[in-house]
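Hey, resending since the last one bounced:
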Amino acid sequence: MINLIQKHSKWVQGFQPHFCVLVCVALIIFYPSKIHANDQTNTLLWDVQRERVTADIDGWDVKELLEHVSVATGWNIFVDPEGITPISVKFKDYAVGEALHAMLGKLNFVVVPQTNAPSRLYVFRTSVQQATREVAQGRKMAKPVPNELVVTLKPDSKTSIDELAKLYGAKVIGKIRGQNAYLLQFNDASATQAARQLLADNPDIGVVDSNYPLESPPLAVALEGGAASLQLKPRAPDSNQHLVVGLIDTTVQSLGANLDAFIKPQLEAASQQTTSTANQLNHGTAMAETILNAVQKQTGGSTAVSILPVDVYGGAETTTTFDVANGIKMAIDNGATSINLSLGGTGDSQVLHDVIIQASKQGIPIFAAAGNSPVTTPTYPAAYPEVTAVTATDSSGNIASYANRGSFVSMTAPGENFVSFNGLVYDVQGTSTSTAFVSGMAAGLADASHASSDQESALLKKTVPQSSLLKSLH
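The structure tokens again:
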């Protein structure tokens, strides 16, 4: 390893041997147990226990690769701005140094350990002084909710979930109706791991999945002054046109008598319930008003669109992939014709993806937030190919400084809206807001065109052709 690093950086030469040893140690100790980054076509698998890396990459550039490396290592990474070259590489089970060499090609690199701080990785052409651009720190990969597993039973299973839970010492704390999907809770980490292995070998089990937390919704900022009130009037839907936006979010509070007519009775999908503050603007409330704002702009104020709120937070600060999957299924079962997901995280859940695939096959458009981190790493559920991923623009129409811009992103929309609640005006920002704008616009376009919900995506593409702005997303 020392020889490899010396080969790839003249800057290391001349230092004492113990420095090179520290560099080699840093390549190992800062990796988490296992990192798997996948954006549908590209894969980077980092296994620290075996000190091996597997990659299948075609379409990333060096900057995007290094964002994924920062997720895996926690390093502060600096790159030569003129060394941003495309990457096409495929290998399996390489040692860490060999993997970096294969991925970086002709570029040089060196890892420098820091005292009481993350190590630094410099990537450059000929001199370390050329590595002047800091790579945006990628988000850490989501850690599963402790002591929980999501399992699905095969349709022909001869064993009930209660029997399985008893067999493996678990409690059933959640269920997705019509999916044969269940959330199991175990006593501790060792019991969870032992059960995972046994469940994976059980012929009655279809999927054994982790349950991942999703990020907390961004807080809105209260302002002085007022916002223009919405002037919507309900219109009876056409015989083939029942446009219902399933809002998978926090609780939706009252929007006022004139707007509450567009809000259907709320459904509860959270596995656990806690107490929430009633007089503070909820994220779901802000998203509902943003959706209706976009609907008004497309319809002129007379609309048959309604919103079906599904609470997947239960008053807590975070939700999970299981509860979101349950929320989507509940919304569709209760008449939702499109889905708004102004939420996301880095956890890739097969059960959540399966629910989305089924919705897509039913012709139900799904819109999800790309994430409020200025990196290109995937956010789920937005990164699933069946989903329209939306990122945010600023007041000048450029990609907002905070917004994710990965290759999975397919649409942009304004990342700011002003909503009214309890006599106050709130400034709501983020890709959550962008997603709500797009969901409302899609439903409003279908309503104004007397079209059905399965035509929403086509109407969006026709009405909002994507400009060269999208080129800056990747």
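Residues 1-36, 467-474 have pLDDT under 50 and may be disordered.

Sorry for the duplicate.
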